[in-house]
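Many introductory courses stop at the sequence. We go one step further.
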Amino acid sequence: MEFLNHLREKAAVQKIEKFIPAIAFLGGFSWDSMTIGHKVYGRDLILLSFYYLVALVSIFFIATKSVVHEEDKTEVESSFFSRVLICEWPSSWIDRLTWAVQFCFGNLYSALVICYFKSSGSIASFTIVLFLVALLVGNEFLKQKYEKFGVSLAFFCLLGTMFFNFLIPHLAHEMGAFWFFLSTIISAGICYLLWFKSERHKRTLVAPISISVILSVAYIANWIPPVPLIVKQQVVCKNFDNETYSCDADRLSFWQRNGFSKATIHKDEGDEIYFMSSVYGPAELKAPVEFRWYYKEPSTGKFKLTDKISSSRMVIRGGRDAGYRSYSKKKNIPTGDYRVETAYKDGAVIGSTSFKVLEGMPKNGFVRDSLR
């Protein structure tokens, strides 16, 4: 009877243990969803840095400490610091360290999904976000995989590069190719040191190196969202007032307000069409932006790039909650379908809007709109 009770208790414990990785995953995601809002504060960066460091230390211990099985645990001193000094861990502690890795990865994944999604303005960059979402969901099922040093190192390299690419602009108040490749080098360098201390086979480095190369190619191709820039508002209009950043826009219908129909702007001959946007960036950050105008050719039905507009005034100065306001304008443009992208200069798209230019008066009239 006692034996059966013991089996039941053991089975109950095993069932509970199955849910621990999921609880760790959901805890990390839920916490980050609540703490990462429309802007990133210093405490958010400190918290994310803490997750990165805890994951780093946990992976280091998993990689460099030998495991002592439960039946031999009497030979190991119970103190945490004693285990560190004698370089041996009971298998139960390896489980705890692996859960710590999963929890920290879950927090970093969720934060990066939120931040990269907000900065994603093209299908290519959104693909990167979907990849992070897939890893975020898959993180729940990878607990045992993280016990393998090679798997942990590969995911740690990916998260490290994306994390430093997000962190450095907040610290250096600049962004661009130099800082992205610096992020890649820092992350890859830390992974190399972990590998060196682990004394594992060189093939363990294949995955981190491949990830670094793929991310570098994706950045050159403008697939990496330009974090931490976020488009707050975009307006197409006419009769622009430079002092108040206000203009006349078509009054939106119910379908247009809810994204089911394309926005329009009606014009008379000689009217200038303005495209305004506000882009949020961290305090003291400076980043040049440009507007890319596309026209849908009636003969082919495809959008063609017609203009890239940039100037010395189109430099984001971060810190304004509603975003840094800028605009571009076109005169005597033909009626038809247009798409305008707000992008980091010569880089990835931050946001875009499609609209139709028509002649005459709008059915619902004009409304005086403005960027906050």
